[in-house]
Design brief:
The chain has 7 helices and 10 strands. Helices cover about 35% and strands about 20% of the residues. The chain has a 5-stranded parallel beta sheet, with helices on both faces. The longest helix is centred in the C-terminal third of the chain and has 19 residues, at about 200-220. By secondary structure, it is of the alpha/beta class.
Length: about 230
C-alpha cells in the first residue's frame, strides 16, 4: 500500500513544493506515495470564510478556530487511523526514530497552523500530536510539514536507489554521521585520509565509527547522554 499524506493548510499551493522533484518526485510519479491537501478555509461558514479569532483573555495575533479546524480534520480522517500531527514550535522535537515509525505506517495527516496558533480544545479533542522541527518559530506550519514529509519519504522502501543509504547517516544508532570524501585525492593541499584508500574494510568501519563518536561528542553530546541512559535503563 502506498504511503498517503494529507496536509491541512490555508496555503495548499505550497505543496508538493520541493517534494515534486528528485527522488521524492519520482517516487510520487511511481505511486509509492501520494499527497492531498485540504483547504481549511473551505470549512468556514460565514460569507467572509473566517478561520480565526482574537485570543481569549487578550493578547496579540489571532488563533485558528476549533470548530472550523475540527471539520477540516474530520473530512480528511473519517474512519482513518493515520497519525495526526500538528506542526508546532512547542511540540516534541522530531527524531529519526519517530520518522522511521511514521514511515512504517500507511501515511500521516499533518495540520499546518498559522497566526498565533491553534485553539487548545481541538488539539485535545482530535488527538493532534504536536511536533517541532527545532527551537525556532516559522510564519506557518507548511515549511515544517514539508521537512517532515521529506524525512519520511526518503526512507520509504524503494525510494532511495540503495536502501543501505538510510542506515549510515546522522542519528542512526544515536550518532552524527562520519565525514565523507571523494576524488580528487588531494584538493587545496588537503588529502583524503589514508585509511579510506587502504582497502581494509574493517579498519575503515572502525575509523568511521570513531569519527562519528568524535563529532557527536563535539556537537551533540546530548545524543551520547541519551544513548547512555537508554543502555543503563
Amino acid at each position: 500500500m502506498a504511503f498517503r499524506a494529507s496536509v491541512l493548510t490555508l496555503y495548499p499551493e505550497m505543496f508538493p513544493g520541493h517534494l515534486g522533484f528528485s527522488l521524492a518526485g519520482k517516487a510520487m510519479e511511481r505511486g509509492q506515495w501520494s499527497l492531498d491537501t485540504v483547504q481549511i478555509r473551505d470549512f468556514a461558514t460565514d460569507r467572509h470564510r473566517t478561520v480565526d479569532d482574537t485570543p481569549a483573555g487578550g493578547g496579540a495575533g489571532m488563533v485558528l478556530k476549533p470548530d472550523i479546524l475540527a471539520r477540516a480534520i474530520d473530512s480528511a480522517s473519517e474512519n482513518d487511523t493515520r497519525p495526526r500531527l500538528l506542526m508546532s514550535p512547542r511540540g516534541r522535537p522530531l527524531t529519526q526514530e519517530r520518522v522511521r515509525v511514521l514511515a512504517a505506517g500507511d501515511g500521516v495527516i499533518i495540520v499546518c497552523g498559522r497566526f498565533e496558533g491553534v485553539d487548545q480544545r481541538v488539539i485535545e479533542a482530535r488527538g493532534l500530536e504536536e511536533v517541532s522541527i527545532g527551537d525556532c518559530v516559522l510564519s506557518g506550519g507548511e515549511p515544517a510539514a514539508l521537512i517532515v514529509l521529506d524525512a519520511i519519504i526518503r526512507i520509504l522502501p524503494g525510494v532511495m536507489g540503495n536502501d543501505l543509504s538510510g542506515l549510515h547517516e546522522s542519528f542512526e544508532g544515536g550518532l552524527l554521521e562520519h565525514p565523507h570524501y571523494t576524488r580528487p585525492q588531494e584538493w587545496e593541499g588537503r588529502e583524503i585520509p589514508a585509511i579510506l584508500a587502504s582497502g581494509n574494510h574493517g579498519a575503515i568501519e572502525k575509523w568511521r565509527h570513531q569519527e562519528a563518536v568524535r563529532l557527536t561528542q563535539e556537537r551533540r553530546p546530548d545524543l551520547l547522554e541519551k544513548a547512555k541512559s537508554k543502555k543503563n535503563g
